[in-house]
Amino acid sequence: MDASTQGTEPTGSFAAAAWDRIAPIMAEIEALPLLQRLSDGTLPPEVFRHYILQDAVYLKHYARCLAIVAAKAPDNAQVLRFLGSAQKAITVEQGLHAGFLTQFGITSADVTSAEPSPAGFAYTNFLLATAYHSSYAVALSSILPCFWIYWHVGEAIKNRPAIEGNAFQAWINTYGDPQFAAGAREVIALTDIAARAASPVERAQMTDVFVRASQYEWMFWDSAWRLETWPV
């Protein structure tokens, strides 16, 4: 994909370097069966139901991570800008979930009682621990892959020929939507601003958590494809 699709910042920025670091992970993400079959409309309904229920559980925790990160921002301008971009993403995802929960027969009680999968549990706890215990710059870097990778994947699928009657078209439209893209771009820009003020040690930590969160993104989708539950 070209730089405009990826949302990559100018060469030399922290975000551009971090995105380059996860190129092998992105190749694995793009090859995931769940995404391939979501794209062509052949994803089994039970897999998508499992995925969207886990995603609803994830979003509850992710929203709290965003609030913690915002509270750590160094000035009011960044607090407001971050909250605005985070609100865009959450509003878009909540609207998507509302439609799919109804379409696939998932009730609010199902969401309330749902247990996170092992992969989802590990991912959200990683994000929460990073948000609580790390600096603003490091915490921000850990939540960035969720924005950026979903934008990247949504754009890639959106640019393929549409499949008539694809039950998952709303998912494709959501993450290929300019509103979601705008929120992702803003978080990328904020991460670069934070990186410019960070020490070399802190920048290394930012890269580490960015890579780890990207690995968790792969694990989350892969676990949904396998209908992962707790083994014991």
Q: How are the secondary structure elements laid out?
A:
Blueprint lengths: L2 H4 L7 H8 L1 H8 L2 H7 L5 H27 L4 H28 L4 H6 L4 H16 L2 H23 L10 H7 L2 H19 L3 H26 L7
Helix pairs in contact: 3-12, 5-6, 5-8, 5-9, 5-12, 6-11, 8-9, 8-12, 9-10, 9-11, 9-12
How does this structure look, described?
- The chain is mostly helical and 232 residues long.
- The protein has a single domain (15-35, 44-160, 168-226), classed as Heme oxygenase-like (Heme Oxygenase, Chain A), CATH 1.20.910.10.
- The chain is built from twelve helices and no strands.
- It is globular, with a radius of gyration of 17 Å.
- 40% of the residues are buried.
What do we call the CATH homologous superfamily?
Heme oxygenase-like
The CATH architecture is Up-down Bundle
- What CATH first level would be assigned? Mainly Alpha
Q: Characterize the largest beta sheet: strand count, sense, and whether it forms a barrel.
A: none
Report the total helices: 12
Helix amount:
over 70%
Give unreliable regions as ranges. 1-11
Per the CATH scheme, the topology name is Heme Oxygenase, Chain A
Distance separating the two termini: 42 Å
The chain-level structural class is mainly alpha
What global shape is seen? globular
SSE string:
HHHHHHHHHHHH
Compute the gyration radius: what is it? 17 Å
What is the overall pLDDT average?
89
> What fraction of residues sit in β-strands?
under 5%
**Domains, number:** 1
Find the count of extended strands (DSSP E, 2+ residues). 0
